[in-house]
UniProtKB/TrEMBL annotation:
A Pfam family: NAGidase
Name of the protein this chain belongs to: protein O-GlcNAcase
Every GH84 domain range: 16-292
Gene Ontology molecular functions: [protein]-3-O-(N-acetyl-D-glucosaminyl)-L-serine/L-threonine O-N-acetyl-alpha-D-glucosaminase activity; beta-N-acetylglucosaminidase activity
Organism: Scophthalmus maximus (Turbot)
Tagged with keyword Repeat: no
């Protein structure tokens, strides 16, 4: 692809920044992977790379320390590689954890560190003050009128010390709308930044939330007015560092191309795993070029966004088509020197993959098994993979269909059995089974793809989804009376792939045990199966997994005696049980919490401490409020929430008669 259109696009007299920020928490990418990224950026017309890996010690935790001779050599080579591919290498440093802004010694250390990187050949820089506590030390309180004043003063001084580089980015502590108090237009922090930050410094912004579902033109116009400049979007739409069970392979979407002339740039902060980011970066590049020729693109009329210049569906197809070629490459580490000819046949879905890439001189004799020939990966396989691991706020089409079919089959299973399995139930059960089989075959073909580097990044995720689909498949067959219940579902001594492993799995099983124990304790007057479901039931039962930071366990001298779980976005869980809750409720209280304590817990203090920690974590995610659902008959838990003091009863239209809602703002 030509890179001229994006590289030459201007914002005033300055080019539009487009590219990638390596800004996630977790293992940083290797130098070789970054060099490969620069090649892709040049090929696709992107022009920027922001170096900001949170777990690079000398970027954040030990920001004062200079780079060693060996580290300097690597960084110089990396900066040179970026320049050779016409990519602007922006070096970011994050001193906000412990810097004393008023200390001349501290500011000198910051300048010394950036001077060293400048000697490496770097010409673009960034100061990041994200994800830190908004409190000043005593010395800073005497020197500055506010936290924003302190940050701006140091940033301006460093910017001028470096000779006012053409590209210099500032990341504010309040980097999204949900962090602003009371709102964007009245935020004293942002108003100070906009007024005092030198005009040559650009400002990073993630949108309405840390991980923004949609970014509207109106929201960007509002923040641009406050900041007195167009922002650079640090886009977390494909970030997965907050949830180790997620991988995001959907297209760049829900950002209208009308934003482009109103922004200074867009940088995607994608998945921690390097190779699966092909789709995220490829589709961003397509989006950035969408209006380059000033002509509308041929957009499907059925496209959700109705953007006249960009179709996420078509952008995804282009990306997956190119990615398929990458899967076929044989020159990657771990891959064969030629396309694989023969592969050992897997004896079961659960066994680890086994491959044999060597020459095979064996010729089967009469009556012997033929050699297994690997089926090549297809574009449909990659479409399915993308659908299963789509975007943070939505599943792909096939994944949505599978969930809907499973829900229908579950809800209609008993009725169908009683009427000798209606034709519709059997037809839909077969359709669901076919979709499950497609997932298994996708897994097999991915496992046999020549490019092992991509496979190794995907393998844990595709193993997990294959296992989950296998359990659902067995469950539906049991509902349909096709043989005895699956050993995976019913065995008291299952194979280890039949349950989630490690400490996380132990916690999950303990939570499910407490949930079943509470259901069996008879705290409600109505048998559990006849009561209307709570939104949190699927969370407690393990059907929906909370992120690790939103799952806490309470223990006493006997063992686990309680838990607190949360979802930062409760909408999907509500939709799962067809609970109709108005958008106004979710706007004020987007998150869901559920707490259960065994009757033997008589001292509420540890439980209150557990709730406090959980609410603090939810607040840090950018949530405005949290709610819970309780049964009127569960007097013990109603009393518990009332004694917390912060939760109040709220009116929610459409709740079943036996269910109450309580909520608190964060």
């Amino acid at each position: 692809m030509s890179n001229s259109s994006s590289a030459k696009r201007q914002t005033g007299a300055r080019r539009f920044l487009s590219g990638v920020v390596e800004g996630f928490y977790g293992r940083p990418w290797t130098m070789e992977q970054r060099t490969e990224l620069f090649n892709r950026e040049q090929q696709w017309g992107l022009n920027t790379y922001l170096y900001a890996p949170k777990d690079d010690y000398k970027h954040r935790m030990y920001w004062r320390d200079l780079y060693s001779a060996e580290e300097a050599k690597q960084l110089m080579a990396l900066i040179s590689a970026a320049q050779q591919h016409n990519v602007d290498f922006i070096y970011a440093i994050s001193p906000g954890l412990d810097i004393t802004f008023s200390s001349t010694k501290e500011v000198a250390a910051l300048k010394r560190k950036l001077d060293q990187v400048k000697e490496f050949g770097c010409r673009s820089f960034s100061l990041l003050f994200d994800d830190i506590e908004p409190e000043m030390c005593a010395a800073d309180k005497q020197a500055f009128s506010s936290f924003a004043h302190a940050q701006v003063a140091v940033t301006n001084e460093v910017f001028q010390h470096l000779g006012e580089p053409d590209t210099f980015l500032f990341c504010p502590t309040d980097y999204c709308a949900s962090f602003c108090t009371p709102n964007v237009s009245q935020s004293s922090y942002l108003l100070t930044v906009g007024e005092m930050l030198l005009p040559g410094i650009d400002i990073l912004w993630t949108g309405p939330k840390v991980v923004s579902h949609k970014i509207s033109v109106e929201s960007i116009e509002e923040v641009s007015s406050v900041l007195r400049r167009p922002p650079v979007i640090w886009d977390n739409i494909h970030a997965n560092d907050y949830d180790p069970q997620r991988l995001l392979l959907g297209p760049y979407k829900d950002r209208p191309t009308e934003l482009i002339p109103k922004l200074r740039g867009v940088l995607t902060n994608p998945n921690c795993e390097f190779y699966p980011n092909f789709v995220a970066i490829h589709t961003l590049a397509t989006w950035c070029k969408a209006t380059a020729n000033g002509e509308p693109s041929d957009v499907d009329m059925g496209d959700e966004e109705q953007d006249p210049c960009y179709s996420p569906h078509k952008a995804l197809t282009l990306a997956l088509t190119d990615w398929l070629q990458e899967f076929m490459r044989t020159d990657q580490p771990g891959g064969p020197c030629r396309p694989p000819a023969r592969l050992k046949k897997e004896s079961s879905d659960e066994e680890p993959m086994q491959t044999d890439m060597g020459e095979c001189s064996y010729v089967p004799g009469p009556g012997e098994n033929p050699l297994y020939t690997a089926e090549p990966l297809t574009l449909d396989d990659l479409r399915l993979l993308s659908d299963l691991f789509y975007l943070p706020y939505e599943h792909g089409t096939t994944a949505r269909t599978m969930l809907q079919e499973l829900d229908w089959l579950k809800n209609n299973g008993c009725t169908a059995a009683e009427t000798d399995k209606t034709e519709e139930w059997c037809s839909r059960a077969q359709r669901f089974d076919d979709m499950c089989e497609a997932v298994v075959q996708m897994f097999n073909r991915l496992s046999n793809a020549p490019n092992r580097s991509i496979l190794y990044d995907l393998y844990n995720y595709i193993c997990d989804i294959k296992s989950g689909v296998g359990l659902a498949r067995a469950y539906v067959k049991t509902l349909g009376g096709q043989g005895r219940p699956s050993a995976q579902l019913m065995s008291d001594d299952p194979e280890p792939w039949g349950f989630r492993g490690g400490l996380s799995g132990e916690f999950q099983m303990e939570v499910q045990r407490i949930f079943r124990q509470m259901q069996g304790a008879g705290e409600g007057k109505v048998p559990p199966m006849t009561q209307p479901p709570l939104i949190c039931d699927s969370l407690s039962a393990g059907d929906i997994s909370p992120c690790s930071q939103y799952a806490l366990i309470l223990e006493d001298e006997i063992g686990v005696c309680g838990y607190a779980l949360a979802l930062t976005d409760a909408k999907p869980a509500a939709a799962k049980i067809q609970r109709a809750i108005s958008d106004s409720v979710f706007e004020e209280f987007p998150s869901l919490i559920t707490v259960q304590l065994l009757p033997r817990v008589t001292d509420p203090s540890p439980a209150k401490h557990m709730i406090g920690r959980l609410l603090s974590s939810i607040r840090s995610s950018g949530s405005r409020g949290v709610f819970c659902e309780l049964r009127q008959s569960d007097q013990r838990m109603l009393d518990f929430y009332n004694k917390l003091g912060s939760f109040k009863l709220i009116q929610v239209a459409g709740l079943p008669r036996d269910i109450l809602a309580m909520a608190t703002s964060l």
